[in-house]
Design brief:
- With 289 residues, the protein is of the alpha/beta class.
- It has 2 domains: 179 residues, HUPs (Rossmann fold, 3-Layer(aba) Sandwich), CATH 3.40.50; 90 residues, Pantoate-beta-alanine ligase, C-terminal domain (Pantoate--beta-alanine Ligase, Chain: A,domain 2, 2-Layer Sandwich).
- It is 38% helix and 20% strand.
- The protein has 10 helices and 11 strands.
- The strands form 3 sheets. The chain has a 6-stranded parallel beta sheet with strand order 1-4-3-2-5-6, sandwiched between helices. It has a 3-stranded antiparallel beta sheet with strand order 8-10-11. Strands 7-9 form a two-stranded antiparallel sheet.
- β10 and β11 form a beta hairpin.
- α9 packs antiparallel against α10.
- The radius of gyration is 20 Å and the shape is globular.
- It starts with a strand and ends with a strand.
- The relative contact order is 0.13.
Length: 289
């Protein structure tokens, strides 16, 4: 496995692969890799084949963090990430620094951003203003640098995947965006790098997200004509409130294609929620089925 740290070096490799007709798969990450990330790597390999190239990027992107968020303490485990990528058969690990991704050659601030103004509204976009501006900008840049035929994202960040898909469609990127299923612990908690922030008791309580999703599914199955969002939202707020360390940030139900909010929840509706467990903010989502 090769590790590349410079934009120029990554561009040279990508252009060589393009000339040679090599199919490239990209898995963008912020590091602190776990089994969920490795499932994305496996999907990328499946898509490009043994003769293709799989690139994993590890970059904690500062522009998608608000000043009060956890940029400074976000877990950085590059040595372990490198070991896991090598074991998973990754061909290139791309690890740029801030000066590479947001250069200031003339001393002026970086000032060019990619902004999606449709599916990025609401949910995480409302809870974390400018978050998706940072996501789309860094992903667009990674697409230009790596020139992938396929990019693989996880379904746990449902809105993020939708935003990237819309950007790719609207700006005609020649990239297939694949959304792979969420990987969960045996008790249902979605794998996340932020799970390691949780104290042991908080970790036990964090299953409230999955339990809420499962409970909502049961309610929808029991009411084939639908349930008002107001009824479900009040019930979810109570259920989260029963967890000592839990605090609901938001819960929403929406059309899975447009992300437009719905007033009545039926089978096929998507549900997403964000919950603080102690000081750790976790997100999850599921289709009502």
């Amino acid at each position: 496995m090769r590790m590349v740290t410079s934009v120029a070096g990554m561009q040279r490799l990508a252009q060589r692969w393009q000339r040679q007709g090599v199919r490239v798969g990209l898995v963008p990450t912020m590091g602190c890799l776990h089994a969920g990330h490795l499932s994305l790597v496996a999907e990328a390999r499946r898509r490009v084949g043994a003769r293709g190239v799989v690139v994993v990027s590890v970059y904690v992107n500062p522009t998608q963090f608000a000043p009060h968020e956890d940029l400074a303490k976000y877990p950085r485990t590059l040595a372990e990430d490198r070991r896991q990528c090598r074991a998973a058969g990754v061909d290139v690990l791309f690890v740029p620094g801030d000066a590479e991704m947001y250069p200031r050659p003339d001393g002026a601030a970086f000032s060019t951003y990619v902004v999606e103004e449709g599916v990025s509204q609401g949910l995480e976009g409302a809870a974390r203003p400018r978050h998706f501006r940072g996501v789309t900008t860094v992903v667009a840049k990674l697409f230009h640098l790596v020139l992938p035929a396929v990019a693989v994202f996880g379904a746990k960040d449902y809105q993020q995947a939708a935003v990237v898909q819309r950007m790719v469609r609207d700006l005609a990127f020649p990239v297939e965006v694949v959304v792979a299923p969420t990987v969960r612990e045996p008790d249902g908690l979605a794998l996340s790098s932020r799970n390691q922030y949780l104290e042991p008791e908080e970790r036990r309580q964090a299953t409230v997200l999955w339990r809420c999703l499962q409970w909502a599914r049961e309610q929808v199955r029991a009411h084939p004509h639908g349930i008002p969002v107001s009824v479900l939202r009040a019930a979810i707020k109570r259920r989260v409130g029963q967890v000592p360390a839990g605090r609901l940030d938001y819960v929403a139900w929406f059309d899975p294609e447009t992300l437009a909010p719905v007033k009545v929840v039926k089978r096929g509706t998507q549900m997403a929620l964000a919950v603080f467990v102690g000081r750790t903010r976790l997100i999850d989502n599921a289709r009502m089925e």
